[in-house]
Amino acid sequence: MLVEAVRGDITTQDVDVVVNAANSSLLGGGGVDGAIHAAAGPELLAACRELRRTTLPDGLPVGDAVATPGFRLPARWVVHTVGPNRHAGQTDPDLLASCFSRPLELMRELGASTVAFPAVSAGVYGWAVEEVAEVAVRAVRGHGQAPGVALVRFVLFSPQALGAFRAALDAR
User: Which InterPro entries is this protein grouped with (predicted)?
Assistant: First the structure.
């Protein structure tokens, strides 16, 4: 399994799965969530509304993940995960780690082999990007050689985030 960090736009990644740093409502938002919804088109919002109407009436819990089609994205699927919000007192690194391990579990169910992750919970959710990078790399590598997973790519928007993820990859 190749694990790498690149600077770029997660909505343009040619991978099987793009991970969305969603909010529990699944109905779109700002940052990565807004960009993925905009790029995927209105069908993504309709699919998320259907999830809320049927299987997730109370929303997606923090640390969990759910898949939808990718619609207009190059990725075949979007795996939505809800990161912990440090500003709301959600400071458990295990919840954050789950935002990286649960999508890998869903990938196996989907038959996907490549994935692009953002820096879930960094930024507006108050987690330092360095801590997110350490937790993310540990969670992904803790999955070992996940059967069928060939590529895990962390796609970062800023040079600071890229540096933090590269440092975390180099440290392990």
Answer: Macro_dom (IPR002589), Macro_dom-like (IPR043472)
| 128-170: pLDDT as tens digits | 999 999 999 999 998 765 678 899 999 999 999 999 999 999 9
CA pair distance 162, 157, nearest whole angstrom: 8
Query: In the numeric block, which tokens belong to residue 86?
Result: 């440090």
What is the maximum span of the chain, computed from C-alpha positions, in angstroms? Answer: 44
Cβ contact 17:120 at 8 Å: no
Amino acid letter at 30? G
Number of domains composing the chain: 1
Q: Kindly list the catalytic residues.
A: 33
Half-sphere exposure of 10 (CA within 13 A, CB side): 34
